[in-house]
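User: Fold both of these, please.

Assistant: Here is the first one.
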Amino acid sequence: MSIYEIPVLDQSGKEITLEEYRGKVLLIVNTATRCGLTPQYEGLEKLYETYRDRGFEILDFPCNQFAFQAPGDADAINSFCSMRFATKFPRFAKIKVNGKETAPLYVYLKEQKPGRIAWNFGKFLVGRDGSVVARFAPTAKPETLTGAIEEELAK
């Protein structure tokens, strides 16, 4: 199964796949609105604004597994991100990234780049061909990813 066939829930809770992102470079991030790393939304939005016209997408998956730092429903999370950080990249339904109820997408990502998700704002870079090419720690600031993103966009 390719990453594009894995079922995910969109922000409204409807099951979809990532097929519409085929051929793009993706940065998949588990996020939270009340985390010490939440200011990374600003850097993520800058990456998105810089590279989206070249075929780059950020896919935001809120995750409430770490100290309950993503409270609220989809509307509350989206409002917070839109108003506080002016984010425009796609946001999906809350997911679980560890444990028995790990979302299929994160099962796949962790099979490709093994290891438990340590905290919110873990990042996976996916190439245009759907392969998971890199994994970045939650503390990796978005601006430090530019080299890896540019390398994938050039392929």
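And the second sequence with its predicted structure:
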Amino acid sequence: MRALITQFLRFGVVGTLGFLVDSAVLLLMLWAGAGPYGGRVVSYLAAASTTWAVNRAWTFRDAARDQPAARQWGVFVALNLLGFVANYGTYAALVAGTETVRAWPVLGVAAGSVAGMFINFAIARFVVFRPATLPDNSRHNPPPS
């Protein structure tokens, strides 16, 4: 249980980093003339790539490494589309429905991040970064007496 809590806390720290990347890229995209919706797609991809790399190196460093990194990134981004639906849906609803979030879209990014966090943690922990398993040699090598 302690390992799960530690992973979740690390996942939260990495998520905070992802939020900062997401927000910075969104603001850059808005400055460059992209709209709040298209700009958010780009910023989300930047954040997802960042969080994949840091989660792989730190949060889930003991996970199985049985697939190439590029494939794992693809699986991470593809499966995180479930969390993205909650994330982007919350963001879009708040941008469309509240003047405050239209003026400060980073508030929508924060709300969306929380909405997708639990979904993305479950996907990361149990699918993308599943724990490495040791071969079961207990049948062939009984413990010493």
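The chain has one domain: 2-128.
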